[in-house]
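Need tokens for this chain, all 567 residues.
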Amino acid sequence: MEKRALIAAVLMAALLLAYQMFFFPVPQEPPAPKPSPQTATPAVPPAAPAAPAAPVTRRPAAPRSPQRLATVETPLYRAVVSSEGGKLQELVLKYRGEKPMVILGDLGPAGLLIAPDARQSPTVVPMALSTERIAVGPERPTQDLVLTGDVDGLRVRQTLTVRADDFAIDVSLRVENDAGAPRTVTIALPWLTRQAWHATQEKFQGQHPTEIVWSSAGQIKRIEDLMAVVEQVADGEWIAVGSVWYLAALVPETPGFKLVATSEGKPPEPKNGDNAPAGRASIALRASPTIQPGQAWEGRALLYAGPKEYDRLSARGLEGSVNFGCFPLPCEIKGVPTPSIPMRWLGVPILLLMNWVYKYVGNYGLAIILLTVVTRVLFYPLTVKSMRSMKAMQALQPQVNALRNKYKSDPQRLQKETLELYRKHKVNPMGGCLPMFAQIPIFYGLYLALSVSVELQNAKFLCIARLFGIDFWICDLAAHDPTYVLPILMGITMFIQQKMTPTAGDPRQAKMMLVMPFVFTFMFLNLPSGLVLYWTVSNILQIAQQWRMNRPARERAGREAKDAGRA
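Here are the structure tokens for all 567 residues:
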């Protein structure tokens, strides 16, 4: 009985083995897991469908290897590169402190995406790293990180070139077709961002993108509301996501790339006070080459992720990403250009002049003061003309008041007689205002230059100490004065200037003008210290000019007083 049971067990085992060998189906590759929110990649629109190609013999996919990381250390930034398409897991700028440019899942590149044919959407390419550490510096100014992978009969090679003196990374791509038929491949290099950052609590809010900007046929185009991004596909020179001071730009360096901007649409509304899942927008460089059997496609691009220093941006052709705006109207109204003045014509020279002065004085506060002196010297003739016109108006004020009393019931006759009085004495009633209007664009251009200048971030002027969490005195020209001493000083100098300025016209209007220093003081409380410094120094110079012009009148009054005393 035991013998027969043993024979039956052996026969059952043999039958099970034979069934597995000859009848069990070939195991299929399990579907790739959906990316988690931390590793989600933006949806890159596939290229236009190509003509049906001949059947392609595809090799079975190799098992997916675990993710590996490579550390990159340069004097300007620290980065961590993943083997998943070469995406950046971390990128921290060493620029006036540590500034993170990548927040995993919310901000940063998604790595190299490839679709083996036009019917599929691009997915991340798993790759192998040539090394796990790169360090560049004065002794070794440049180094390459090579990543290689295989996707459905395509051999992929990505080379990242880092430099010790640059925030930019050169990206070289090579895709080789090992199959026996032509392949229309979609290749994408995306950078994603959260659409709304106002609810986040992360530090360094200045790196959070607020707009998508790109250059196409020499024209700069912007989408300043990431919630309103619709799919954009265009030929052009570069595309970027940026904030006021920082930029992440993709620059194609070989033909065949398209500029792509996409959005997930408006994110859902929060419920029960919870934060809603963040919607995402993305930019990308996309190419859709057709690669013949045994041939390879090669492309090069540039990734710039760093501060908006004008000189660095100009070297890469990215200077148009700095938003100086227009004056006084927006550059476009519902897509239709309007006749306005691009403020970059004024902002760029002022910014370059400030940086040039800084090279010699080594302090941006002193550079702003010297720039203010230069501005006052240039406008000195207009200022003198304005003051003389206002003094002439003041001298005629008794006669103007007499006309008002005489023709108070006839406004038209009063206006006619007043203009005739001004014409008789060769006084221009607008002479005191026109020089001020001429200075408004310069002031606005300086305001924009100081507002968009990343060089002023954490730039010290008179930083003495830090007590009870407050800086004494000005330790960041790009931020407001935490002690509010500088805005109050600005208001005092503006009040003194108003008292010294000759008044003409209605006395009630003169009293209203004395209220302006208090209004300006409240307006300037939270403006950048660099701008308040400019306005304060400008007021002091104006007071000095007014005192100098009033000197002959004071001496004449003194002589008359002495003569009256002798008499």
